[in-house]
Amino acid sequence: MTAVVIVEDEPDIADLLSIYCRREGWQVYVASNGESGLETIRARQPDFVVLDVGLPGELNGFDVCRDLRQTSDIPVLFLTARDDEVDRVLGLELGGDDYVTKPFSPREVVARIKAVLRRGRTETGPQRLKYGTLEVDMDRMEALDEGKELTLASQEWALLQALAENQGMVLSRQQLLDLAWGVDWVGDPRTVDVHVRQLRRKLGGQLPLATIRGVGYRLG
Ligand code: CA
Hints:
The chain has 8 helices and 12 strands. It is α/β, with parallel strands linked by helices. It folds into 2 domains: 3-122, 3-Layer(aba) Sandwich (Rossmann fold), CATH 3.40.50.2300; 126-219, Winged helix-like DNA-binding domain superfamily/Winged helix DNA-binding domain (Arc Repressor Mutant, subunit A).
């Protein structure tokens, strides 16, 4: 599961961003100053950091990023409040990946996070799964068996993506619904069973997708 640490001292902004990030199915941790931000990032090892520039205490957002960059290349999105902060983000080699200026729309922040995460993934190569003669390229949404293309519906891709991102972990039907359908989706968790059946039918017996009785499903 994608984890995000938000370092922001204004509770309203932190709450709003948390809500939007959780809607994406992301795990969210919030810290309200630079010191606790660094601690949280080190403890949680998130996939992404949203970092307010103007923080109370010893360390501002720039200091946190500088400190972080000594040991980590985790993507950082700066939240800036003033033009001079923007100038510093752009002018200093802090190693931030992007920035947004307050006031911002939380939708935009989420879109920026997704864009940076996508960029990060292509740099490390596309996500491929290979089981026997079955090959699945998650980024290109291509599934091949012995070179023959298999067609999956978009919801089946979303489900496969959720399982693949959590390989080796058992996911409950509700977790799969949240990840693949979104937390706003309201419906019968047995929908997951229907789509799992479709995935198995289409991808054949090579997909190591186990049913965990009374709990849910596990890939790999
Ligand atoms: Ca602030």
